[in-house]
Amino acid sequence: MRYQITGKQIDIGEALQTHVKTELGSVIEKYAQRPTDAQVTFSKSAHEHVCEATIHLSTGLTTTAKGKATEIYAAFDACAEKMDKQLRRYKRRLKSHHQVRAQPVEVSGASSYILAADEGDDEPESLNPVIVAEMQTKIPSLSVGEAVMQMEIAGAPVLVFKNEKGGGVNVVYRREDGNVGWIDPVTGT
Length: 189
Hints:
Elements: E1 2-7, H1 14-31, E2 37-45, E3 48-56, E4 62-69, H2 72-89, H3 91-100, E5 107-115, E6 131-142, H4 144-154, E7 158-163, E8 169-174, E9 180-183
Parallel strand pairs: 1-2, 6-7
Antiparallel strand pairs: 2-3, 3-4, 5-6, 7-8, 8-9
Helix pairs in contact: 1-2
């Protein structure tokens, strides 16, 4: 497993890095048992330490957790516990996808933009929004079931993916009534 352990304006020592690799490795080994990438970022917010972890599983799923505490080790432990809960919750689904999927999920590159929020109730002067940031993102090629599971694991309200069955770009989203919506555009009529 590849680890990227960083600190935002915090010095991360070797002992903490070793602790992160050991604890996170044991959590992943229990549930995924496949090579993965892990990104762990430590920061400080007022008097609390914050630990954010993102793990990319070889099945294409991404899980994210965040922990806060007054001590940096306790913040990581809270984050790892949340990660453990998420993976435990989806253990059966993850196992069945490991057996079906022999190859890692294919991903396509795409541009992602953050647009400035409208200020006030005034009419906009133009219909061209102000771009605040531009980033590269990846669109995974998944089945609809895998996309729903990915969205739930990540705790995201929406997920854009390339449908393995039809090949087109699809969207799954959490509806206000608690159900999951699926947008599957009609191709070539």
